[in-house]
Design goal:
mainly alpha; 21 helices; about 65% helix
């Protein structure tokens, strides 16, 4: 297999502000193929083929119904702005396309959706914990603009409950276009708050967003310096989680600086804390129990949500290990890491894309194309990227028909894609 081929990561959009195509003639729920994989964001119903991130929606919805008895949401992943709209458009579910959950017609609402609407309507009367759950829940569903409108301007004030709420608002801002600078300023303030877990969490968030969105090494190093002052040996389960996340962010910083040895050292520390996290088993804290907790009609057990958090943390570590392995080529563990990622989160579009990247780096373009296509089958703009990358692999392998099909499938998800149009016209 040719070793010098590199997949181009993204195509050009002729209209970056353009909306994704609406599809018509697709089956309604529950018979809609695409919606089966995305059902939690469509109407908050469950799905056995949802990604790990989407499975985390149910516990938060349950907690929102009784926020005073709820724990803090320690889940990390939230939705990307606009993804829900892309899903319902590509699935042909126009009645579900709404910019505010209160706009969803009553006959389409599930009981969980009604809980969400009631919380949005009653936001002014909610305490900080309920507001935290709601802001995160809205971001899970890609309702970032609404979440930020409800929250308004916020700053930490030393009250632990309020500072935890401000931290969640800052995370939503960090994931919203044009809001990263504001988010980083909030994380800087939170890094000096009295709650050591929130302060250290703000440091790892600051490192990640300073690097990914602003390429600001100076700010990232400042967050690292503050984090090292806070990063004491963890003495409980959540402290262990935050400690692992912080050192994972440090590893990302070292990679960005071009120091793979130091990155490996930081990753080793993060993985060691993760192993302690996974070993600190609570009742029912295993994958099977997490699945039972998800499937059960009762509220999800704490052990089940803890297992989700452990799996999520391992997912982040895997992606960073893959980054370290594939910088400058493919390492000896690339394929094994891709396989573990797919076992851990088999229905996640982004996990499939990342695995495709890894297989491509390893020179297995046929396998890469297969996983890019499986990502593309899940729709959205990221799915369009999957089809584009698959087409590149097929073209390099000399399979013109498969490349044409993949470029066409890319355009079906994003009609503004420039290179697919040029390929099909050529």
């Amino acid at each position: 297999m040719p070793g010098r081929f590199h997949v181009r990561q993204r195509y050009t959009r002729s209209d970056p502000r353009g909306l994704f195509p609406r599809v018509t003639g697709r089956p309604a729920l529950p018979h809609n193929r695409l919606a089966a994989f995305w059902r939690p964001v469509v109407d908050l119903a469950d799905s056995e083929v949802a990604s790990l991130r989407l499975r985390m929606i149910r516990p938060v919805s349950t907690w929102l119904a009784d926020p005073e008895a709820a724990p803090w949401p320690w889940f990390s992943r939230m939705g990307l702005p606009g993804v829900r709209r892309q899903v319902v458009r590509h699935a042909g579910l126009d009645p579900y396309d709404c910019a505010d959950p209160r706009q969803l017609p009553g006959e389409l609402r599930t009981p969980r959706w009604e809980t969400l609407v009631a919380a949005v309507d009653g936001f002014a009367a909610l305490g900080h914990r309920a507001r935290t759950l709601l802001i995160f829940h809205l971001a899970q569903l890609s309702y970032h603009p609404l979440a930020l409108r409800l929250a308004g301007p916020v700053r930490p004030d030393g009250d632990p409950e309020r500072d935890r709420y401000v931290y969640e608002v800052a995370r939503v801002r960090a994931g919203s276009p044009g809001q990263v600078a504001h988010a980083l300023s909030l994380f800087e303030e939170l890094a000096g708050c009295g709650d050591p877990q929130v302060a250290l969490a703000a440091c790892f968030q600051g490192i990640g967003h300073a690097l990914r969105h602003a390429n600001d090494l100076t700010s990232a190093r400042r967050f690292e310096e503050r984090g090292r002052e806070l990063a004491k040996p963890p003495d409980d389960w959540h402290a262990c989680l935050v400690f692992s996340r912080f050192h994972r962010a440090v590893a990302l910083l070292r990679l960005t600086e071009g120091d793979p040895g130091a990155a490996t050292s930081a990753l080793t520390t993060a993985k060691s804390a993760h192993d302690d996290l996974a070993a600190a088993r609570r009742p029912h804290d295993d994958l099977a129990a997490a699945q039972r907790a998800y499937d059960a009609p009762a509220d999800p057990a704490p052990g089940g949500t803890d297992s989700m958090i452990v799996r999520e943390n391992r997912r982040y570590l895997l992606e960073l290990e893959l980054d370290a392995e594939t910088r400058g080529g493919s390492g000896s563990r690339t394929v094994a890491l891709c396989q573990e990622l797919l076992r851990l989160d088999p229905y996640c579009l982004h996990a499939r894309l990342r695995a495709g990247d890894g297989f491509a780096a390893a020179g297995d373009l046929a396998r890469a194309a297969r996983w890019y296509e499986r990502a593309g089958e899940l729709g959205t703009g990221a799915g369009a990227t999957g089809w584009f990358r698959a087409a590149q692999c097929h073209d390099h392998l000399g399979d013109r028909a498969a490349a044409v099909n993949a470029m066409g499938r890319c355009l079906e998800l994003d009609a503004t894609a420039v290179e697919p149009r040029e390929y099909l016209a050529g």
